Amino acid sequence: MTNSEILLYQTEDGQTKIDVRLEEETVWLNQKQMVELFQTTKQNVSLHIRNIFKEGELDEISVVKDYLTTASDGKQYSTNYY
After folding, report:
1. How many CB atoms sit inside 10 A of residue 79's CB?
2. Is residue 18 included in any domain, yes or no?
3. Is 20 part of any domain?
4. Are strands 5-10 and 65-70 parallel, antiparallel or unpaired?
5. What domain range includes position 82?
6. Whole-angstrom distance between the N-terminal and C-terminal Cα of the chain?
7. pLDDT tens column, 10-56
8. Least confident of 2-6, 24-28, 62-66
9. Residue 47: inside a domain, yes or no?
């Protein structure tokens, strides 16, 4: 598998679909994808991410990557993946 290849996963019932970014055998998700995966709110995901960094559980520089994402309007936006 090459770097920055994206896989699409969908359950048999079609209810859950997650776009996954794999890089060197590491899964990268943005906050929106985490919301879908954990069936929670963006605010809740943001709170947990902030607490993880604040408490030193993970080093932000080591576990956050910034990627350009093209939106439906054709514009590119910077998106953090964790």
Report:
1. 15
2. no
3. no
4. unpaired
5. 28-82
6. 19
7. 667 776 666 667 677 778 889 998 888 888 999 999 999 999 999 99
8. 2-6
9. yes
Distance CA 64, CA 71 (A): 20
Q: Give me the number of domains the chain comprises.
A: 1
Asked whether residue 11 is domain-assigned, the answer is: no
Q: How far is 50 from 52, CA to CA, in rounded Å? A: 5
Beta strands 26-28; 65-70: pairing state: unpaired
pLDDT on residue 45: 97
**Position 6 pLDDT exceeds 60:** no
Q: Is 64 exposed, middle or buried (0-12, 13-18, 19+ CB in 10 A)?
A: middle
SS3 80: strand
pLDDT score for 1? 39
